[in-house]
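Design a sequence for this backbone.
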């Protein structure tokens, strides 16, 4: 068995995934040491810098808007009601605000495209067999048509 060097996506196979599982079960740290966020991001940037940058921007955006509680994320979904007894605050679980709905839909679509672009790097043969190569570009075109300019081109 060989382990991927930094800068190479793993060539995923049952043998490799089983070997990684065996390493984890045996208390080894080779998988953990190899597949750090830094290694994965650096490799992704080498293979597709634009997609890596777009996905990282989406990651930062989701944190900014509530993936980790912060004022901007919490206040976007907070309502205030004034009553004769005082003030009450509530959280909106479902909204009718078109801008928030469009933002959520656009972000979801962009994350999906980023995931597909990443999987295409890891499994190019399977994407070719399924004829998916051109489909991702069609999804990007559709997203950009509906939501104006998106993160992917």
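Sequence:
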């Amino acid at each position: 068995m060989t382990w991927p060097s930094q800068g190479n996506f793993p060539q995923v196979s049952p043998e490799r995934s089983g070997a990684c599982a065996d390493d984890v079960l045996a208390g080894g740290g080779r998988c953990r040491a190899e597949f750090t966020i830094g290694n994965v991001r650096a490799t992704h940037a080498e293979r597709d810098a634009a997609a890596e940058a777009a996905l990282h921007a989406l990651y930062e955006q989701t944190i900014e808007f509530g993936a980790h509680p912060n004022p901007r994320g919490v206040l976007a979904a907070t309502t205030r009601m004034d009553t004769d007894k005082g003030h009450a605050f509530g959280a909106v679980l479902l909204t009718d605000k078109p801008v928030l709905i469009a933002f959520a839909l656009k972000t979801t679509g962009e994350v999906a495209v980023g995931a597909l672009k990443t999987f295409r790097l890891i499994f190019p043969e399977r994407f070719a067999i399924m004829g998916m190569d051109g489909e991702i570009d069609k999804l990007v075109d559709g997203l950009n048509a509906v939501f104006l300019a998106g993160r992917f081109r």
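Helices lie at 14-25, 30-34, 37-47, 49-67, 71-75, 98-122, 124-130, 133-146.
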